[in-house]
Amino acid sequence: MLQILEIVLPVFLVIGSGYLAAYFKLFSAAQASALMRFATQLAIPCLLFMAIVRLDLGKEFKFEILAPFYIGAVCSFGLVWLGAGLIFKHNPGVRVAIGFAGLFSNLVLIGLAIIELAYGAAALKVAFAIVAMHAPFCYILGITAMEFSRADGLGLAETLRRVFKQVFSNTLMLGIMLGFIVNLTHLPVPGPLETALDLFARAALPVALFGLGAMLMSYRLRSGLGEVGMITVGMLIVHPLVAYVIGHFVFDLPPELLNPIVVLAAMPPGMNVYIFAEMYNRAQGIAASSVLVSTVLSVVTISIWLAILG
Q: Which domain holds residue 238?
């Protein structure tokens, strides 16, 4: 257990220090926002770009690696979406917004740091293969479900436009796409540029974790705590459980592949769930509360999953 705490606690101590800095007004909301913009729009895209450039795509992008994580994600989405309708009686659009909170995991800001501390840099290859598909998969599923659920749906053409805009208008996806282009075309990255990109990449995770903690200060517990509890169960228990069952019993994956997949599946919701809720003006309070509550509780649940996986 002490080993597990040595893996999990450093990540959440950095997040907590950001939260306390914002709480005691050492960091303003504007400063926290600027820090997150640096992390998400510059440092993390550099990290993802260099990671994809260095990946062996034929080795890492395999169905048996991606399927456990994404089948688990769909199961969590479906469970939360059904619960939002059957238990909490929300209308179809709100159900999808709540379901999206049970779908989009915080893989980059928390997941990558946990994976590296737990299993070393080699396990990041599995993580980056999953991360590369994450935003396109989640936004395509979420936006398509929302547009088909809303009474005022925008139609196929506008739906596709929104999917394209959300998936390809952010710098994280730009970093991933450029990484694929360089990897597939075998373009060389000049030495000084590679060194500069690596310097940005090294700053990405600690800055992002600190900024995440500072940003969490702006989230508040609001109404819909029943829905938040359901989202938390879906993200922290159902998703990794399904990933484990499929990875272990269906694909018989070795621990060096199975463990990082399951731990990534155990991540809490990312801030994109609030962005999605804001985009459609549905369930914003529930989305914000789910990010805060699940992130705090994931300290315990990630530790449990690490113990189970050994």
A: 2-309
Q: The CATH number of the domain where 224 resides is what? A: 1.20.1530.20
Partnered with residue 269 across adjacent β-strands are 105
For residue 95, the tally of other CB atoms under 10 A from its CB is 25
Q: CB of 246 within 8 A of CB of 72?
A: yes
pLDDT digits (tens, 9 = 90+) for 259-292: 999 999 999 999 889 888 988 889 999 999 999 9
Q: Which of 187, 116, 157, 145 is nearest to 280 (CA)?
A: 145
Q: Which residue has the tokens 């993580």?
A: 127
Query: Left, alpha or beta for 55 (phi > 0: left; psi -120 to 50: alpha)?
Result: beta
Rg over alpha carbons for the chain, rounded to the nearest Å, is: 19
pLDDT digits (tens, 9 = 90+) for 64-121: 999 999 999 999 999 999 999 999 999 999 999 999 999 999 999 999 999 999 999 9
CA angle 283, 287, 291 (to 5 degrees): 170
**Domains contained in the chain, number:** 1
- The pTM assigned to this predicted structure is 0.89
115: its two tokens = 């994976």
